[in-house]
């Protein structure tokens, strides 16, 4: 039995987190949970985003399921996501976007995976005020970080029977930083002759994704582009409420919904837990509980197909609990 650390988050975090844990227990997943309150409320109470016990739990268990946490814009504390990624070297952000036939969008048959480097680029947060009218932000790209995310993308493509990896960059303008990332990409591509390798400039990728998303398979890119492109891919399949995500390092792994904490619907009991639930399924895959993960995904597919117990964001009228109950019924 594996013990997993759980951060319940804030906003709708606790609501969807509790629903997901209920489903995991009903599916008889071989995991136990250590749950902690983290986020804005914890910061207001104790001046910390996370209690020390929460860090200790993650360091002990090495696997974390994290609900959404509010991050102030332009003031206050730094994103807890960025803090965790850097502190525990969670260098690979992996976000699969796959169409579900029950969710009608203008983009059928999407099946792609974004590999986002997670620890550097502009997200190092190094800024310098030059004068009252000028601020410089530092973009950092290193060979070590570039090599490991690119290598992981190719290894994933090979082991998951994917046929192509696309490097996303802006090397036409950022000739040294993105230029190095692109050069490393093609060097590593030579080690995987069975996998097609190509590259595209990031703005062209965004255009092509909304014109021909089926042309993409696995995409790998630096941090900022990955943040933007992966959110775009969620729109192709119905929104962030359906997109799972994980952050993987050599020692630690964090699984999370990447949507926000949605303070406007807190307490209304209508939040959609699907993204966090599918992220939990990625966690089960990581823990070698693929059969349990597959049963949960199948139950989700059945509930979406029936379209009876869907939350308002999925054009239904069900509460979070009713949606959760419907999934559990399909597990039994």
From TrEMBL:
Domain of life: Bacteria
Keyword Zinc-finger set for record: no
Span of domain Isopropylmalate dehydrogenase-like: 3-327
Originating species: Amedibacillus dolichus
Protein name: NAD-dependent isocitrate dehydrogenase
Family recorded in the similarity comment: Belongs to the isocitrate and isopropylmalate dehydrogenases family.
Keywords: Oxidoreductase
Gene3D superfamilies to which the protein is assigned, alphabetical: Isopropylmalate Dehydrogenase
Gene Ontology BP terms: isocitrate metabolic process; tricarboxylic acid cycle
């Amino acid at each position: 039995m594996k013990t997993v650390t759980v951060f319940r988050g804030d906003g709708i975090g606790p609501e969807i987190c509790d629903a997901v844990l209920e489903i995991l227990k009903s599916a008889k997943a071989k995991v136990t949970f250590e749950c902690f309150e983290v986020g804005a409320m914890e910061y207001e109470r104790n001046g910390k985003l996370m209690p020390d016990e929460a860090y200790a739990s993650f360091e002990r268990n090495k696997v974390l399921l994290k609900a959404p946490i509010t991050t102030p814009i332009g003031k206050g504390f730094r994103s807890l996501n960025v803090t965790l990624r850097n502190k525990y070297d969670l260098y690979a952000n992996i976000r699969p976007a796959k169409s579900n036939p029950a969710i009608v969008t203008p983009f059928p048959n999407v099946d792609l995976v974004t590999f986002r480097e997670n620890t550097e680029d502009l997200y190092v947060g190094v800024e310098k005020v030059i004068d009252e009218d000028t601020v410089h932000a530092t973009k950092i790209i290193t060979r070590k970080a570039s090599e490991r995310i690119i290598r992981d993308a190719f290894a994933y493509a090979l082991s998951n029977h994917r046929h192509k990896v696309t490097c996303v960059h802006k090397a036409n303008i950022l000739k040294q930083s993105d230029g190095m990332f692109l050069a490393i990409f093609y060097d590593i591509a030579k080690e995987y002759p069975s996998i097609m390798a190509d590259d595209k400039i990031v703005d062209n990728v965004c255009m092509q994704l909304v014109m021909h998303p089926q042309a993409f398979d696995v995409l790998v890119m630096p941090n900022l582009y990955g943040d933007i492109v992966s959110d775009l891919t969620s729109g192709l399949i119905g929104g962030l409420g359906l997109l799972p995500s994980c952050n993987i390092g050599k020692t630690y792994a964090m699984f999370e919904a990447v949507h926000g904490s949605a303070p406007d619907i807190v307490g209304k009991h209508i939040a959609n837990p699907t993204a966090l639930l599918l992220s939990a399924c990625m966690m089960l895959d990581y823990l070698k509980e693929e059969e349990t993960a597959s049963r949960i995904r199948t139950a989700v597919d059945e509930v979406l197909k029936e379209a009876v117990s869907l939350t308002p964001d999925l054009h239904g009228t069900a509460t979070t609990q009713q949606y959760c109950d419907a999934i559990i019924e399909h597990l039994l």
